[in-house]
Amino acid sequence: MTISSPWEAALSQLDEAADVLDLDPGVHDILRNPKRTLTVSVPIRRDDGIVHVFTGYRVHHNTSRGPSKGGIRYHPGVNMDEVKALAMWMTWKCAIVGIPYGGAKGGVVVDPKELSSGELERLTRRYAAEILPMIGPDRDIPAPDVGTDAQIMAWIMDTYSMNVGHSVPGVVTGKPVSVGGSQGRADATSRGVMYVTAATLKSRGMAVESTRVAIQGYGKVGGPAVRFLEELGCIVVAVSDVNGGVYNSRGLSAQELAEHRAEKGTVAGFPGGEAITNDELLALDCDVLIPAALEGVLTAENADSVRAEVIIEAANGPTTPEADRIFEERGVLVVPDILANSGGVTVSYFEWVQDLQAYFWDEDEVNDKLRTIMEQAYVDVLGVAEEKKVRMRTAATILGVSRVAEAHTTRGLFP
User: How many CA atoms lie within 13 A of 92 on its CB side?
Assistant: First the structure.
């Protein structure tokens, strides 16, 4: 069967895990369906005075283990199927790292680069107002995702707070530290990717200092990951963004890359290596490939050209099910997104806890707690993979699904 959307991919992964677990059909059916979905119109007045209506979404997949949690993305490709899939993956992700959340996701169909700062703020505040019935510190806690950032979270926090009449920092995470954000949150996903990469290399007996890494997507996750992997001792041989990429077999300088990106707005044209395309990066001779952009970049069409022996999924859903099967047949290890990029939601949980207690931790404490959780989650998933003799993605999904199913069964079905 050909999988044509992220939602079909997410359902396929759930069905495979449910089959291994011999999951109760009723529980399986519940987990196949989001708890609630919302589609909203988001009208704003543009700077030229014309009113333009955007479309927004928010989905709660499951709340058996606690309030729902998930990012908000601003991107032209946002659609309900994508948002439902991301919400489902978020449910498993939270369960894998053992934090008391269910999965949610949201988004607006928009290219934020085409909006002025004022238009972006008006869009954000109106979208927040439209999804207000679904969010709250004990209900659903949004966070940044593709196309959104700490400032957008601050606007959502302020919009919610103005509506309830008092400041509620715990309604979102990924905020600036000045309004209740956490130390270490901005780079948490990237740091988590580094911890998982280190654990993978250790489990496979690969020497860190000779490991060559290629990263597709030099954004909020891929950018800091270059620095962290360089600090770990890896050789980052290639990076790319939407405008193109750069390759150097001897390694790229994280600091010089960051400086070039800050000046030019892209890693393309970086003088420290030769120019390559995004497609060429995926096929490079390297040890570890890290897709850190959008979903669906590794497909049946290009999976055979991938030469890395390990793929660490920093993006959400970058590998299609067809590509997954090809990688399994070829012996390529895929460390799935719901494990590899769970550092972001883990530190979002830390931020939420700090907001609720109004007591904040320093960055070393945040990073130490993150390392402990990521390393344990890796061990847990690897254990399931070895016990069940399944690939890492299936093992991760099995672990997440089993924990959510246990919570649902323990609570029972209302009424």
Answer: 32
The tens-digit pLDDT sequence of the chain (415 residues) is: 566 688 998 999 999 999 999 999 999 999 999 999 999 999 999 999 999 999 999 999 999 999 999 999 999 999 999 999 999 999 999 999 999 999 999 999 999 999 999 999 999 999 999 999 999 999 999 999 989 999 999 999 999 999 999 999 999 999 999 999 999 999 999 999 999 999 999 999 999 999 999 999 999 999 999 999 999 999 999 999 999 999 999 999 999 999 999 999 999 999 989 999 999 999 999 999 999 988 889 999 999 999 999 999 999 889 998 999 999 999 999 999 999 999 999 999 999 999 999 999 999 999 999 999 999 999 999 999 999 999 999 999 999 999 999 999 999 999 9
- Residue 239 CA to residue 224 CA, distance in Å, equals 12
User: CB of 236 within 8 A of CB of 193?
Assistant: no
Q: How far is CA 302 from CA 87, 144, 224, 319, in A?
A: 27, 30, 26, 11
Query: Using the 8-state DSSP alphabet, how is residue 182 labeled?
Result: P
CB-based contacts of 389, cutoff 8 Å, min separation 6: none
Helices assigned H by DSSP within 97-140 = 117-130
Please give the C-alpha separations between residue 20 and each of 13, 33, 382, 397, 406, in angstroms, as whole numbers: 11, 19, 16, 10, 15
Q: Are 295 and 6 in contact (CB under 8 A)?
A: yes
The values of phi and psi at residue 221, to 5°, are -100, -50
- How far CA 102 is from CA of 190, 220, 318, 353, in Å, comes to 22, 24, 22, 16
- List active site positions: 105
Q: Are 322 and 168 in contact (CB under 8 A)?
A: no
Three-state secondary-structure class, residue 279: helix
Handedness of CA 126, 129, 134, 135 (dihedral sign): positive
| Strand, coil or helix: 300 | coil
Helix ranges (DSSP H) in 221-362 = 222-232, 254-264, 278-282, 321-330, 337-340, 343-357
Helix/strand number for the chain, H first, E second: 14, 12
> Rounded to an integer, what is the distance from CA 228 to the centroid of its chain?
17
Of 309, 287, 149, 286, the closest CA to residue 223 belongs to 149
What are the phi and psi torsion angles at 132 (to 5°)? -50, -40
Contact 315, 69 (CB under 8 A): no
Determine the Cα–Cα distance for residues 9 and 2; give it in Å rounded to an integer: 10
Beta bridge partners, 55, equal: 41
